[in-house]
Amino acid sequence: MRLSFANWRKMELPWKASRPWAAYRAVCMDTGEPGGETAGPQRGPLRKTPDELSSTENAQCVHALMWRETDVATVSELVSQAERLFEGAEDILEAVQGGPVEWWDVVEAGVVRYQVWLYGVDSGVVFEAGTTKQVAHVAQFALWCEEDLRLWKALAVAHRELKAGCPESDLARMAFNAAVRCPHCDRLNEIWIDAFDDWVICSGCGQGFDAAKSGRGS
Length: 218
Ligand SMILES: [Zn+2]
Prior knowledge:
Blueprint: E1 3-11, H1 19-28, E2 46-48, H2 55-66, H3 75-80, H4 82-85, H5 90-96, E3 101-108, E4 111-119, E5 123-128, E6 134-139, E7 142-144, H6 149-165, E8 178-181, E9 188-191, E10 199-201, E11 208-210, H7 211-214
Parallel strand pairs: 1-2
Antiparallel strand pairs: 1-3, 3-4, 4-5, 5-6, 6-7, 8-9, 10-11
The structure holds zinc ion (ZN).
The site of zinc ion has 8 residues, from loops.
């Protein structure tokens, strides 16, 4: 599985001000020109407003931001009704409001296989293309894809290329390395390989194991 990220898009949401997370974001992020449209070989993101989203983009973004089923269909409705939708979960709302929303297609051999949505500085969701079926998520900058180690590694390799080619994106600030637990000593091994070899030599006990069979990151 050879994946790459394509079609960088970005959107600012008209939340009411969220000062703690704006400060967190300022610490985490570079404060250079947003998007870097004019610098370097990589063009900046396609910028959209909530009114310009397709129905699929609306569905995926609402799903990513809410983490549950809701009675709203569009991002505009979510923003305007945020206080009601996040009632009792104001801390989550604060986190969601932490930064712009950025999203990408994940392409394999010219075919879009997944979309990844990032929001709230350090969070995100990976969906099967065109659906709200979640296959992985991003929490505290880290990708988690415990159910499919090969997908995790393919995303990690694609992400390393993205970091080199498009360092000013929010996606480049995430950490997509795959990690599996050794079945012999329980040590968490990070997998940074380019080759799609499932055999891992544990950095703790030195024994080998098949990551695809025992692989669980958490
Ligand atoms: Zn071990």
